[in-house]
Amino acid sequence: MCRTILFSILTVFLSLFAGATKYELKSPDGNIVVNVSVDNEINYSVSFNGEKIINPSTLGFTFRQAPPLGNNLKILSSKVFSTDETWTPVLKRFDKIRNNYNNLRLESRETKFPQRKMTVEFRAFNDGVAFRIEFPEQFGERENVITDELTQFNFSGDFTCWAVNYGSYATSQEVEFFERKIGDIKSEMVIGLPMTAKVSNECYVAITEAALVDYAGMYLKADNRSDGLTLRSALAPVKGQAENGDKVVFKTPHKTPWRVVMIGDAPGKLVESEIVQNLNEPCAIEDPSWIKPRRSAWDHWWSGEVKMEQSVIFEYIDLAASMGWPYMLIDWQWYGEFNPENADIKTVAPQLNMSEILDYAKSKNVKCWLLMYNTDVDRYNFEEACALYEKWGIAGIKIDFMDSDAQTMVNWYHRVVKTAAKYHLMVDFHGAYKPTGWRRTYPNLMTREGVMGNEYNKWSLRVTPEHMCTLPFTRMLAGPMDFTPGGFLNRNPDKFLNGTPANVLGTRCNTLAQFVIYDSPYTVACDHPDNYKGEVGVEFLQKVQAIWDDTKVLNGAISEYITMARRSGKNWFVGAMTNSEARELEITLDFLPEGKFKMTSFSDTEKIKQDAESAQKTELTVEKEDSVKIKMQAGGGFAAVFEPVE
Predict the structure, then answer these.
(1) Cys-Cys crosslink for 521: which of 19, 122, 293, 614, Cβ 3.0 to 4.6 Å?
(2) Taking every annotated instance into account, which residue ranges of this chain make up the domain Glycosyl-hydrolase 97 C-terminal oligomerisation (predicted)?
(3) Residue 22 has what pLDDT?
């Protein structure tokens, strides 16, 4: 259903005061207020429940061949309306998503030469605010080159934030989100998105972007023109160019992505938000029924030495079949050495027989995915390769090592996803930039990396319990992340080793909980078949899903702990994780419907202190009136499935 109306002067007002034109836009529930003031330049500010979050902040652009844009502006027209619609996602965390917002659209023009037009659109949702700039059709076929976007986020206080500093725009976006003060962000830092901040105990915000289309990815930089509490947008330069080089090349009409301020009264409300997807266009695939979000085995790179051998591939196909996972990912070198000048993604390595592999997989009710290096994708006709993969019966492709969100690379991503969709191929990007909700429009874009995931356990001590408890409230706010959970060689810090076979920090129950907490419609389990055989918790991995009909954050504190409940059909799943502190939590089961449920849970025990692989399995009959105590050891977790008792 969809409802769009013009709304009254009581919802949005405009007034003239000291020469300024002022507008007020409220969220449908009235809790979020956006104030816009136009007096030569456009300023916006944001409040939540009467508490100021963002003080007046300006919008602007610099160009290579034209004066800066953002000053000497005059409003030509304004329009206000409301939208309330419900849509059904393909890659689900909820079976239905409500898209409800109030909208303010301001058309402006410079009062001085060259009198360019600029339209600003604001949307106020119950879970945040978004705005974007449109450049209407003007100046014919002239090419415009943006050298920077100067959107400000002028915070009302020196709030604690969790900000990732990439230090560069050429990045795989695989770095920790460290806790710091906004005032501690220095001009040399390149802050990635999302950036989450605690305004107060009853107000949390996150800055990110949505609908990144034909534009450069946004980062945040300290604004040296301010009091130290203002951040500004900074765009990824053209790949290979300096930071002060060209950023976006376009002809009018053109739009920026949405600049998003997610808002909630608890950190878990940010996790539940669907504002990023709501700001993207509806599904463009006429019949997406072929898109099947599920779990997958992964053949060797993480869990063993690189052995691109047919027998090894069969071993992982057998694992997928035994676990009830419909997919198996064939990793690098299936077409030979990656990234040489003669790499051909249509030619199978001589030691492999692809038809035998795919016939064997089919006999096990498993479909295969193929990995490729991004530069190899462009050496030959990618569309021909996709047509070949469809003929083979390949389910999807994983592409790695892009390490950029410059405008040209963003457009490359979109071309790849659209081409893959023509041939019924799903896509997983690694070495990737963060999501911006475009999976709503092209849901064959299943997941992506852009996260410091399990692979870092092979060579570092960086995937700590604190990091794992920070990700849901930071990186995951942007969208799915291919963390590749499932490491069953669980180790406490004193026994943790890098290398192969790969260990993971944290307990077995922490690993199980990741399958509930971390969003990824294509969930790739990382470990070797031998490490799953007969192990406690394997039966949970056979039941847990990759998409959900409902999602609830039951509790959580950034970098400390989180508990989530997810529904798939009639079954509910709960996952909880803690950082390096042992913790006891109590949850009520009021998310369950009426009736009795069989709860099968996996909990940390005192044995964890000597053996992080141990876990206690318990079966109980429970109802929604009951509560459950969750006791987690340091680096621990909890996982449970609730199945109706017929």
Answers:
(1) 293
(2) 548-642
(3) 96
Main-chain dihedrals φ then ψ at residue 148, nearest 5 degrees = -170, 150
Let me know: does 504 contact 457? Beta carbons within 8 Å.
yes
Q: How much is the pLDDT for 225? A: 67
Task: Write down how long the chain is.
Answer: 646
Read off φ and ψ for residue 420, nearest 5 degrees.
-60, -40
Residue with tokens 């199980």: 512
- Taken in order 276, 278, 282, 283, the sign of the CA dihedral is positive
| pLDDT of res. 241 | 80
pLDDT at residue 349, as a whole number: 94
Burial of 500 (0-12, 13-18, 19+ CB in 10 A): middle
pLDDT at res. 226: 63
Q: What token pair was written down for 79?
A: 């329009």
Q: Which two tokens stand for residue 191?
A: 């802050």
As a whole number of Å, the CA-based R_g of the chain is: 25
Q: Are 422 and 384 contacting, i.e. CB atoms less than 8 angstroms apart?
A: no
Q: What is the pLDDT of residue 559?
A: 98
Q: Prior bond to 521 cis, omega within 30?
A: no
| pLDDT for the residue 208 | 98
Q: Which residues of 207-229 are buried (b: 16+ CB within 10 A; e: fewer)?
A: bbbbbbbbbbbbbbbbbeeeeeb
CATH topology of domain 457-519+547-646: TIM Barrel (3.20.20)
User: What letter would DSSP give residue 238?
Assistant: S
What pLDDT, on the 0 to 100 scale, is given for residue 3? 47
Whole-number pLDDT of residue 525: 97
Q: Domain coordinates of the chain in residue numbers?
A: 2-278, 457-519+547-646
CATH of domain 2-278: 2.70.98.10
Q: For residues 331 and 326, what is the distance between their CA atoms, to the nearest angstrom?
A: 16
Q: What percent of the chain has pLDDT over 90?
A: 90
Beta strands in 40-185 (DSSP E): 41-48, 51-58, 61-63, 73-87, 97-110, 117-125, 128-135, 144-149, 152-155, 160-163, 178-181
pLDDT of residue 439: 98
Q: Do the beta carbons of residue 248 and residue 407 sit within 8 Å?
A: yes
The residue ranges of the chain whose pLDDT is under 70 are 1-19, 225-226, 306
First to last CA, the chain: 35
Fold agreement (2-278, 457-519+547-646): no
Q: Give the pair of three-digit tokens for residue 325.
A: 């996972």
